Amino acid sequence: MNEKKACSSKQKNLSDYQRRRIEENRQKAINLRQARLLTHPYSSDKKQTETAVSVNNVIKVSGTKYIDSGGGFLIEQRTNPTEDETSERLESIQESDTVPVPIEYDECLECGDRFADSYLFNTFNYSVCDACREPDGQHSLITRTEAKQQYLLKDCDLDRREPALKYISRKNPHNVRWGEMKLYLHLQIEQRALEIWGSEEKLMREKEEREEKREILKVKKYNKRLKELRMDVRSSLYDKTVQVHVHSFGDSEVYNEVEDNYTRSCEFCGYSETFEKM
């Protein structure tokens, strides 16, 4: 009697979740017993009317699936845990094991909202959220070659000047065998050009001066090439087989008594010269 009273008092002290677990375990034991009886067709118990279906080591009894472990017992297969089981698992996690991770927020330069993650910030370290990003507009990309030509930048301006500009590498769309392209954020290239040249007017003036020098060099190169072509044409028309002219004076010497010298003339070209005899 005392044992029955103790059991009844313990049952009263059980929670709803513990009672539900006890009932589930009892039902599980009944299902397992029925499964064992059904798997032995020569069992003496003929009153069992339920059937068990076995497919790929999975036995289904009364809507519950069990996995045959091969070691003499069955394991219940569960799909989704109940809410009580989920809460029990969450409560079992100790608070000392969790480490809080601080989240850093940045302010968008366009709209002013705070964000924790964005494509432009992760790729180019440029504080603009994804909602304000305009890939075909002000946030477009520019190749390294175009940046150097349009903004008169050098390799050291892009790589060594602090802070070094970030870029992404893409395959060349014109020919896959060529080297990969380096794409920079257009806004950052413009800012770097203003840091170097001071203002947009100075940059435009420098570009004009360089363009004028380039045109002068182009004209000089053209004139030099034209002169070389003319010399080539003239040299091809000149007959190099003609011999050098040699004067032939013959006996045309004439003595001048007043100046005491002689004069003679060439019989072919009319050249005349004056000389003295010792």
Automatic annotation (TrEMBL):
UniProt name for this protein: XPA C-terminal domain-containing protein
Compartment(s): Nucleus
Record flagged with keyword DNA damage: yes
Species classification: Eukaryota, Metazoa, Ecdysozoa, Arthropoda, Hexapoda
Region (Disordered): 1-20
Entry's family note: Belongs to the XPA family.
GO cellular component: nucleotide-excision repair factor 1 complex
Organism (species): Anopheles funestus (African malaria mosquito)
Keyword entries, A-Z: DNA damage, DNA repair, DNA-binding, Metal-binding, Nucleus, Zinc, Zinc-finger
Pfam families: XPA_C, XPA_N
Transmembrane parts of this sequence: none
The keyword Nucleus appears for this protein: yes
